[in-house]
Amino acid sequence: MYFSKSFIPILKNNPTEAKIKSHQLMLRTGMIKQSSAGIYSWLPLGFKVMKKIEQIVREEQNKVGVQEILMPTIQSSDIWKESGRYDDYGEEMLRIKDRQNREMLYGPTNEELVTEIFRSSIKSYKSLPQLLYHIQWKFRDELRPRFGIMRCREFYMKDAYSFDISDDEALYSYNKFFLAYLNTFKRMDLSAIPMAADTGPIGGNLSHEFIILANTGESKIFTDKRIFNVDSSSTTIDQNSLLELRNNYEKFYAVTDEKFSKKEFEDNVNEENRLQTKGIEVGHIFYFGDKYSKSMNATVDYNGKKEFVKMGSYGIGVSRLVGAIIEAKYDDKKEIMKWPISVSPYDCCVLPIINKNDNSNLEKAVNIYNLLKKSGLDVLIDDTDENLSSKIKKFNLLGIPYQIIIGKNFNENKIEFKEIDREPIYISLEEIIKKIKDKKSN
Ligand code: P5A
After folding, report:
1. What are the residue ranges of helices labelled H in 148-261?
2. Sign of the alpha-carbon dihedral angle for 171, 256, 40, 100
């Protein structure tokens, strides 16, 4: 992509209405544009990042055997009346009437709709477990939408649902998601810690929030620092390995503030290991047994008897993750954003220093740009005539992790190559391509 033809509407200064870094940077670099309170359009740069996040989330769901579906955003109120949540959900639910005067709503979550889909098709326990997910927009009429896309009204969520015959089987499903979540966030270069959490309007008595540490986060957390050293890399998807993983985490006290007890914290964690801080909730998983299957009569045939299925639900804030990654990766001191390569809007950028009346650097840069593209990389070239220092400033905000600078001492075998937050090195184009590709496949 040529910068001059791109739709990346960069603002000169930080927008004053934005209070946290991610909101500032997303507006400043034209990733999003507010359309009304808590509702945003996603412009190319932001959209590219979100789509990459979505794809990682999708691949990790598929890996643990979850099947993708797509449910609508608009739901009928009937199923919510069956579950009893139509009234419980309160003012956060956006209610709509269609031309026949039927009560509809914009889905804030999909436990009811997926239960309705399940009960109409699955009749025998032999078809269990069923694990289904979709990635779809949700609407919650939040009282105080804030921090841009971190707490907004319309947001993009991956929500999955599990259906099992027994508590034991259902916990096995729960643990598959537990592992899938750790792997998902790791691929975004985030360290997300599972913490025992409240279940709120979803219900149930077992739940973990996946939290990444950030001072600007809205969740207060209390934890044993040693939980950061738990390693999940050798966990496999069999039942025992997953149980061991859960145990390895649950050995350490780690809770959000609704679950916090001063006494338990002090009894369980030595003073030097106590950490009380803030974080961003990027995922939340729930086990609620037969809460929905009972009220909505979702049963399967089990040796001649009808049994209510045992369910859980599992959310990831796909759009929130865009902001969360900025909060985690923006370097305040250097004023540099650095996207993890796995979600970066471009793999690298080419920055020619363009002198008036001399197009030769631009020509060399275009040549390199074409070769990089041919090798399969996604590249942004800055073909504008801004000077180098203003290009660098701009690209420090855009956060593309690798820069190729074409200046006056251009040498084909020693091209200036810079990881955004490091000193430049001088290597050949083949070496540059190899470096970036190696990083991408990690
Ligand atoms: C789990 C999947 C649920 O809704 N039902 C289906 C369950 N959980 S949740 O915790 O309420 O939401 C899941 C994740 O969605 C993100 N999220 C938000 N993102 C942006 N703005 C919001 N207003 C918002 N509300 C929830 C969070 O990442 C949350 O973990």
Report:
1. 167-187, 239-250
2. positive
- 275-326 per-position pLDDT tens digit: 999 999 999 999 999 999 999 999 999 999 999 999 999 999 999 999 999 9
Decide: helix, strand or coil at residue 335. Answer: coil
Pocket mutation for ligand 1, best pick of 135, 282, 284, 286 (most atoms within 8 Å of C-beta)? 284
Ligand 1 within 6 A of CB of 195: no
Positive or negative, the Cα torsion across 54, 58, 118, 294? negative
Q: Which of 3, 40, 88 is nearest to 323 (CA)?
A: 40
> Within 13 Å and on the Cβ side, how many CA atoms surround 195?
35
**How far is CA 179 from each of CA 64, 69, 193, 356, rounded to the nearest angstrom?**
9, 21, 12, 56
Q: Which of 161, 320, 325 to mutate to test the pocket of ligand 1 (most atoms within 8 A of CB)?
A: 320
Give just the sign of the alpha carbon dihedral 405, 407, 412, 416: negative
| CA 190 – ligand 1 centroid, Å | 18
Residue nearest to ligand 1 atom 4, measured at CA: 109
pTM: 0.97
List pLDDT tens digits, range 424-440.
999 999 999 999 999 99
